[in-house]
Amino acid sequence: VVSNASETSDFYCKVFGFSRQAEDEGEGNVSYHIKDGDKEVLGVCADGAFPDWVKGWVPYIDVEYYEESVAQVKSTGGKVFAEMDWGRRFCLATDPSGNPVMICEPDKEN
């Protein structure tokens, strides 16, 4: 649940290469189904449609091109808080609405 579902869903589509499908929640509120191909991977809900819900989540998302995804965070209104190397690289960032997301380099052993 976020304050700007359009901007936030656009962030995830641009950073991770996902697509989105809008859902009219009524009273001018639009939420989005975020898909990786045909599989739904996230839901970005308009806070106006869900005013009493908890805001945000912390998804861990593996990306094929780590550096490019981190660069997209910065260029699409997100913020990078920390990058870590725990045998593979991780980037703790926030989207434009301030929700945390962990960008993960794929595990090279799998």
Give a verbal description of the structure.
The chain has 110 residues and is of the alpha+beta class. It contains 2 helices and 7 strands. The chain has helices at 5-16, 66-75; strands at residues 19-26, 29-36, 39-44, 60-62, 79-85, 89-94, 100-104. A 4-stranded mixed sheet has the order 4-7-6-5, covered by helices on one side. Strand 2 and strand 3 (39-44) form a beta hairpin. Helix 1 (5-16) runs antiparallel to helix 2 (66-75). The relative contact order is 0.21.
Overall SS class: alpha+beta
Measured as a percent range, the helix fraction is: 10-25%
**In what order do the strands lie side by side in the largest sheet?**
4-7-6-5
User: How much strand?
Assistant: 35-45%
Mean pLDDT: 90
Distance from N terminus to C terminus (CA atoms, Å) equals 33 Å
Number of DSSP strands? 7
**What oligomeric arrangement do these chains adopt?**
single chain
Number of helices: 2
Shape: globular
Give the SSE string: HEEEEHEEE
Main sheet record: 4 strands, mixed
Q: What is Rg?
A: 14 Å
Q: Poorly predicted ranges (pLDDT <50, ≥5 residues)?
A: none
